[in-house]
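Message: I would love a firmer grasp of how sequence relates to backbone shape in proteins. Thank you; the sequence and its tokens follow:
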Amino acid sequence: MEAFPGPFSAADVRRTLPPGVCGDPAKTISNVLSALVKAGRLQRLSRGTYARAGHGDPAGPTAPRIR
């Protein structure tokens, strides 16, 4: 299952979580997304917008990554 086939934001991720899943969901999600960017699993398209590396982003997998 692919929940976000194209670009998405931390707010999109937060909306998918059931209430009470983590203490500070915004900070937790931000940390997870940052780790995934550093690991090469996600590409940061712009501030707050992400896509799976090489999938679903109009810029394509060879576009420069913003870190």
User: Anything to note?
Assistant: The chain has two helices and three strands.
